[in-house]
């Protein structure tokens, strides 16, 4: 079943109209799922008249259980790594991605460049949310420096060398079903010591992601998987 | 520290000689790590004389604890998805990948095509093993049909809809440190019912990977992460 996200005015988006009519070649009475701007999804029956699409609601789809809220704080990567992170972290259930230019980020970005890229980034997230049957599209923002991160979280983790006192699973099992969780991954060059000091001041706990070295674009997927599996058990 | 894998004759590979001399521009007395064909790694000091490289061993690197052995059985994907799987599953610690042409695989492959591609696949795995500081490169093989899978495993999982009786974490916690584990992921089109029946006959247990639908090329990373986190705790 195809799923589409309505725009902020709760209308089918222009590109999706094209997708429904020209790509999927749907006809009147075909059914799709639509999700509104607050994450409520519906099964609807289409009514297609040349290039206009209207629909009538057949049923509300069950709202997913309210679970933990995960903010990925991702050190800015080079090339298409940021897009890779958006695509797959969305599939793995992230609720929000904050890209941060960190001391060892090879790529640089500023607010103006980010604003230009943001629309494309949100489209990638939306497509990924659609394919993975999520009810909502993650928010994507940018910080030019880690010191501007002024938020508080119930748990804040930073992917760093393992301290070997407790394991990742022990730490992640402290996360409760409705907690706000931050998970920070450094850029290709790693995290500068001054940044680690700042993170520790802000109660970030370092966690190791197994015995291998993971590349920056996939490190978050390890953390998101383990958090998801822990929460799945807690909420079952 | 750069890490290189010796060939089966325990010599530095030709491409690595080029990498050491021309790309990294290393000099006599520079140090690298080398891993032999049985996965033992050494810190060595280089001796470079124009285009020949020899080395003397400074120290044996600690052997990693013998852990579980994970075989990923991956439904053949289209385009560059197979290479994506090799690259990232290697980083996430897989020991062996068996590509299988399944009923709903869109791409087709035969033994001859696979043999042609295998060298390239192993190079991708080796590069990924090098970057993630693994001691060994995973084996990569191909089966033209699932019915030829005649191996036995201590635990065999297939990514499928969640049966909701037990959670993924409960099932994976049954894996012990030295177990042989198989993890099967279907192709884009999913797993045919006849294949699921065959898998169940062969004691494969279906597991759900969270509440979202993961694309075939990243589904294994969810499973590998959770298995790794569970084993990390058991062996700590």
TrEMBL record, chains A, B:
CDD domains: RsmE-like
Protein's cellular compartments: Cytoplasm
EC number: 2.1.1.193
InterPro entries: Alpha/beta_knot_MTases, PUA-like_sf, RsmE, RsmE_MTase_dom, RsmE_PUA-like, tRNA_m1G_MTases_N
Catalytic activity: uridine(1498) in 16S rRNA + S-adenosyl-L-methionine = N(3)-methyluridine(1498) in 16S rRNA + S-adenosyl-L-homocysteine + H(+)
Domain Ribosomal RNA small subunit methyltransferase E PUA-like: 12-41
Source organism superkingdom: Bacteria
Major subcellular location class: cytoplasm
Residue intervals of the Ribosomal RNA small subunit methyltransferase E methyltransferase domain: 68-227
Keywords for this protein: Cytoplasm, Methyltransferase, rRNA processing, S-adenosyl-L-methionine, Transferase
SUPFAM superfamilies according to UniProt: alpha/beta knot, PUA domain-like
Family under the similarity heading: Belongs to the RNA methyltransferase RsmE family.
Biological role: Specifically methylates the N3 position of the uracil ring of uridine 1498 (m3U1498) in 16S rRNA. Acts on the fully assembled 30S ribosomal subunit.
Protein's name according to its UniProt entry: Ribosomal RNA small subunit methyltransferase E
Annotated source species: Paracholeplasma vituli
Lineage, uppermost ranks: Bacteria, Bacillati, Mycoplasmatota, Mollicutes, Acholeplasmatales
